[in-house]
Design brief:
With 238 residues, the protein is mainly α. The chain has a domain at 56-138 and 185-227: 2-Layer Sandwich (Zincin-like), CATH 3.30.2010.10. The chain has helices at residues 3-16, 32-37, 56-71, 104-109, 113-133, 137-140, 158-161, 163-175, 188-198, 205-208, 210-216, 221-227; strands at residues 81-85, 92-95, 99-103. The chain has a three-stranded mixed β-sheet with strand order 1-3-2, sandwiched between helices.
Length: 238
């Protein structure tokens, strides 16, 4: 007896052409064009620049020294990709906090591995300095927690009446005074020297590479393409 009412309902549905909501097929996923419109409107696509690759010898030399600098300086938390460009113009620059580009012409100008390490370390020092400049002082140098307070008795003023506690707090405040001045931006060259020293190079390698860096600071063929800006020489003799 129950089959007849169900058949009647089904026949009514077919005649009216209005199937119940549970019978409607789910909507298809948005196309790629529609999905792109749903993204953040002000977020531009990353710039893609075509550049000729450097020779295998130059690329291998750069990668070997880069790996040594990074592996011996893990405390800085910097692990950039270093890519060699097949250009005779001496040029080195970084894009964001994870990419360094160096031209084969600049690699050839570095007669020793120490000079090439200094060039890469200098760029890494700049990246670290830029990164630290946008981090709040509370994160870079947080205040140390005061010693745990164990008041004696139930009195509210028992902590102030405890001479041991008073002496302990006085010693703490002397050892760890509060930071009243904002932290200065790390000096890129000083960071670069530390990176070199940690990797087994001499700190003076940065001085030996100063003429090379000064010459490269004038070239911005590929950097202007990647960043869409005009290069401004910011190299200062350390």
């Amino acid at each position: 007896m129950r089959i007849r009412p169900m058949l009647c309902c089904l026949g009514l549905i077919l005649l009216t052409g209005c199937p119940p909501r549970s019978f409607v097929a789910p909507e298809s996923l948005p196309t790629q064009q529609v999905a792109s419109c749903l993204q953040e409107p002000r977020k531009a696509a990353p710039t893609r620049v075509n550049y000729p690759p450097a020779s295998q010898d130059a690329s291998n030399r750069v990668l070997l020294i880069k790996d040594k600098l990074i592996n011996d300086n893990l405390k800085f938390g910097l692990k950039p990709y270093v890519l060699a460009i097949g250009s005779n113009d001496p040029e080195v620059f970084h894009v964001g906090a994870n990419q360094i580009f160096i031209s084969e012409g600049l690699v050839r100008q570095c007669q020793t591995d120490g000079q090439l390490a200094a060039v890469l370390a200098n760029e890494m020092g700049r990246m670290i300095s830029e990164r630290e400049s946008v981090i709040s002082d509370e994160v870079r140098q947080p205040e140390r927690l005061r010693p745990i307070d164990f008041p004696i008795g139930n009195s509210v003023n028992s902590r102030d009446a405890d001479p041991v506690r008073v002496a302990e707090l006085a010693y703490y405040e002397k050892q760890y005074p509060k930071h009243t001045k904002p932290l200065a931006r790390p000096n890129p060259q000083q960071v670069a020297r530390t990176i070199l020293e940690n990797a087994g190079y001499q700190r003076t390698e940065l001085d030996a590479a100063a003429p090379i860096l000064q010459n490269a600071a004038r070239i911005a063929v590929y950097e202007s393409q990647f960043k869409g800006t005009t290069k401004q020489a910011d190299w200062k003799t350390p």
